[in-house]
Amino acid sequence: MSQFQQKVELVCSDRMTEDVVRLTFNAPTIAVHARPGQFVMVQTSPGKDPLLRRPFSIHQVTSEGYLQILFKVLGKGTDLLAQVRAGEQVSLLGPLGNGFTLGLPETACLIGGGMGIAPLLFLATRFLQQSSSDNVAKKMPTVILGARNRTELEPLVDDFQELGIDVLAATDDGSFGYHGLVTDVLKKLNLSPSAGIYCCGPRPMMAAIAHLCQIENRACQVSVETVMACGMGACLGCAVPLKAGGYTHVCSDGPIFEAEKLLWSL
Ligand SMILES: Cc1cc2nc3c(=O)[nH]c(=O)nc-3n(C[C@H](O)[C@H](O)[C@H](O)COP(=O)(O)OP(=O)(O)OC[C@H]3O[C@@H](n4cnc5c(N)ncnc54)[C@H](O)[C@@H]3O)c2cc1C
Ligand code: FES
User: In terms of CATH architecture, what is 4-96?
Assistant: First the structure.
């Protein structure tokens, strides 16, 4: 698998909400090799603080060679990244990890919670490209997105709607879409037994979805997050437990896993 470490130009920085930012880089070499579910390690400062790069899912790529990440400002690294201005250079390492394995668009259900929505736009785009190349009527994946409130969710839903996908939205406070959890929406859906789940979000959300899929004997791929130091299998700091015993490394074996392979409760 090809990986590149490159300084690339930031083309634009968009504040989606008070603390969520989308960066667009001119990164044609990484973009052309990227697959949905993979990530990049981003140097957040030209100096030594923070020393370590930060991992971000690849949010979208375009045929013009642009690559986007979408992130919430949490600490020093993301705060510095949010301050980078168009025209400045940022060092990216990627694409890293293993992406999602795509099934058929009409039997795919994408579920994202909070910043877990980030990798799903690229995934949804690939599903649509796949169905257009089949030269038949476009087949849409089902998309369920959840967040705390309308402010956090609406701008992200708009991105999917621009692709022509109707999103089933859920918010904790009921200010946008269904009042409740994405898992409630999933339970009410009459998904075909062959539909596979592609999911990214907070661990409790993914654990609940993994449990539902296990009961229904449904295929489920999850995108796992851990704190990462190297992102390339060298530091062994990103280990998560396997159901069969032992550990797996999120950066090199994931971040996409079949949900049934992981141990969800300790
Ligand atoms: C494969 C992968 C893909 C990711 N993709 C995205 C993405 O698309 N968008 C996005 O917003 N974030 C994503 N993350 C999380 C992101 O890497 C962290 O939010 C970021 O590293 C925080 O850096 P910081 O220097 O700002 O915060 P730090 O100073 O390192 O930490 C600040 C606070 O945030 C907490 N924190 C750090 N990392 C995480 C984490 N992974 N989850 C929850 N809390 C955390 C810390 O415990 C601490 O309390 C991803 C992580 C992984 C492993
Ligand atoms: S982050 Fe270093 S081995 Fe995974």
Answer: Beta Barrel (2.40)
